[in-house]
From TrEMBL:
Residues 102-182 form the Coenzyme F420 hydrogenase/dehydrogenase beta subunit N-terminal domain. Residues 191-362 form the Coenzyme F420 hydrogenase/dehydrogenase beta subunit C-terminal domain. It comes from the Bacteria. One of its GO terms (molecular function) is oxidoreductase activity, acting on CH or CH2 groups, with an iron-sulfur protein as acceptor. It comes from Nostoc piscinale CENA21. The lineage of its organism: Bacteria, Bacillati, Cyanobacteriota, Cyanophyceae, Nostocales. This is Coenzyme F420 hydrogenase.
């Protein structure tokens, strides 16, 4: 039980460190605590962030908000959470965490692969858990209808039929939060599986340790390998280039598969209003400004201080197989890390029945498929931590240690520019919206982008960048 003095102190500490420091990922774990004074709101840059909704002295919550926040220093880290759950049965790999088995492949039954962003494994797993009677509902991110007071295109929702689950297939690079759906879980007793990116799965595990109702009802966590989280302006940036202005966007597909291109050259599909009529726009994202994930446009600051790429606290993890032998297949291929014995049996049954086309690969191979993300959150993170410490700022404790000497000056500069690009993209897009002209955005970003491109020895990337600029102007 928390006394009023303790509540005041811990809420003030959470707000002064995580929120004011810009480290809130907007997951909503703190707002999901019963009687929490915290609400989740979109800020001016289209990012969800924790906000105090009532005076602290009036709150009656009894669970520590700091202990459920994935970016505070009050809760367990990913290694501590995962060791307790998976340490007995799994092996440990220093880049992907604990694992029972690791695969690459896709779903061969029905149209799971066609509907999915990659090989269809994420949706297949939750469908199997539901159809086998191992859960009563699937908590995942699905499209929703935007309104004048809430422009969001996606939210966490509960699916209880196979048809509802299948309508929730595909990845969403979009701000979402869990407090609303956790309240629904409290009101609807049952067994659930939840799907999320690494920091959200960590937050759920921390909530489960503090709240017995959540611990009783969430039976499985399905993780999604994560690059980083984006603000709502990422989708708006692409749609605007197709003629749909921010505020007029109604639907968005971040991973529209293009038959004549490789898996990493997918398209986007936007539906929205133009001159009062509903239009549909489809384009390869590489033909649009802002597609390069290395630039980090619209990235949350918290993502620069995350060291978990493979959702190390999840029962199973799926992601893209960014490996040379799979990347040219436009239909998409998954890498899969299994940590739960029940799920492992479902997968073995799926392989035997011919419903899954999966090949065993090594844990090293899984790590290789995510080499860029792991490098950014290991070697790159170590330098970013060094910079934060040098500035004397509070920052989250990480499993990676602060360092500087392991990176050349050129690589240090690349990390500095990535952070700057993320920060400036939020401001530049806001300027473009106020001006009513998309061209304001690239004009504001191009000098930084060019500086970043020049940290690479190859001239190919910046030549592609210049060609993109010529199309815009």
């Amino acid at each position: 039980m928390l006394g009023s003095t303790s509540k005041n102190q811990e809420i003030s500490k959470l707000l002064e460190t995580v929120v004011d420091g810009g480290y809130c990922i907007g997951c909503g774990a703190c707002a999901a605590v019963v009687d929490s004074p915290i609400k989740m709101k979109l800020d001016e840059y289209g990012k969800l962030c924790a906000t105090l909704s009532e005076p602290v002295v009036q709150t009656s919550h009894q669970i520590s908000l700091g202990k459920v926040c994935p970016f505070s220093n009050e809760g367990l880290n990913e290694d501590q959470i995962a060791e307790e759950i998976f340490g007995k049965d799994c092996q440990y790999h220093n880049q992907i965490g604990y694992y029972l088995t690791t695969y690459a492949g896709f779903v061969s039954e029905s149209d799971f692969r066609k509907l999915g962003s990659s090989g269809g494994m994420g949706n297949w797993i939750v469908t199997q858990l539901l159809s086998e009677g191992l859960v009563d509902g699937v908590i995942h991110v699905k499209p929703c209808t935007p309104s004048p007071t809430d422009p969001r295109l996606f939210k966490y929702q509960i699916s209880k039929t196979i048809e509802e689950v299948r309508n929730g297939a595909k990845s969403r690079y979009y701000p979402i939060e869990i407090s609303e759906v956790i309240q629904m879980l409290r009101e609807q007793p049952g067994r659930y599986v939840i799907v999320g990116i690494p920091c959200f799965i960590k937050a759920i595990r921390l909530l489960m340790k503090q709240d017995p109702i959540i611990a009783e009802r969430i039976k499985f966590c399905v993780g999604l390998i994560c690059g980083h989280l984006k603000s709502i302006h990422f989708a708006q940036m692409f749609a605007w280039q197709g003629g749909i202005k921010p505020g007029d966007l109604l639907e968005f597909d971040f991973r529209y598969k293009l038959a004549d291109r490789g898996a990493n050259q997918y398209g986007m599909k936007a539906v929205g209003l133009k001159d009062g009529e509903v239009i549909e726009c489809i384009s390869p994202v590489r033909d649009l400004y802002g597609w390069d994930w290395g630039h980090g446009f619209f990235k949350y600051k918290a993502c620069e201080y995350c060291d978990d790429v493979i959702a190390e606290a999840a029962d199973i993890v799926v992601g893209d197989a960014w490996l040379p032998e799979y990347v040219n297949d436009s239909q998409g291929t998954n890498v899969v890390v299994v940590r739960n014995i029940v799920i492992q049996k479902l997968i073995e049954q799926g392989i035997t029945a011919g419903n899954l086309h999966l090949n065993a690969i090594t844990a090293d191979k899984v790590a290789k498929s995510q080499a860029s993300g792991l490098n950014h959150r290991r070697e790159g993170l170590a330098y970013r931590l060094y910079l934060a410490d040098k500035r004397g700022e509070w920052r989250p404790n990480k499993r990676v240690k602060a360092q500087i000497s392991h990176l050349s000056r050129q690589l240090q500069k690349r990390q500095e520019l990535r952070m700057k690009l993320g920060e400036e993209s939020h401001i530049a897009f806001q300027k473009a919206i106020k001006a009513g002209q998309f061209s304001v955005f690239p004009k504001s970003m191009n000098f930084l982008v060019l500086q970043y491109q020049l940290t690479y020895p190859s001239t190919v990337l910046w030549k592609q960048f210049i060609q993109k600029c010529k199309k815009i102007y």
